[in-house]
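W.,

You were right to be curious about this one. When I first looked at the sequence I had no strong expectations either way, so I just let the prediction run and decided to look at it fresh. Below is the sequence, 219 residues in total, followed by the output.
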Amino acid sequence: MSDVLISLRNVSFSFDPDRPVLCGCDFSLERSERVGLLGPNGSGKTTLLALIVGLVRPTSGEVQAFGKVRTREADFHEVRARAGLLFQDADDQLFCPTVAEDVAFGPMNLGRSRHDVRRIVAQTLQSLGLDGYEDRITYKLSGGEKRLVALATVLAMEPEVLLLDEPTSGLDDAATRRVVDIIARLPQAMVVVSHDRALLDEVTTRRVRLVEGRVEPVA
């Protein structure tokens, strides 16, 4: 079995033909790797994550995930079940009235039984220190609480890969410490987009940088 879970091969992408975002980009994620992805705002970090799960499609090049080339929408259904994407803005991820409903949404759509869904919700919230939050109104939560619930919605899918887009963005020191501690003990392979060097030093095994549309290693 290959150790490579995700790879982009010579991938290019642009929203505007005159302003390419990625240009012949190569990237790979192996089992047990935790890759920190650096780059200035607008360099394409979020776009790279979106390409992995098929939210956007490359203008050229190849996306491989879990041993298969992915091109069509149907190809990415499996990818989204196995690679969990945490959006940069928690409000983009949370849309149900209560915390429990948000966390249950993914497992229910994967066809899990009601009994399994209740168990998954309880275990996931407990693992993140959110016991008793089941009936809380999502939009009334603090920024740190929303960030943790958004992470819970991803973890409840029991993904093999985590794609975390600025997981500590906008959090105070206490909430940041809590999120970092949680990420550090997760077992999944992951890509972590962040400007926070301390976070990346603590939770990643290697770092890369997007430069002019290509991924380069960081010493």
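Here's what jumped out at me. The mean pLDDT is 94. And, maybe more interesting for your project: The chain has one domain: 4-217.

Coffee later to discuss?

I.
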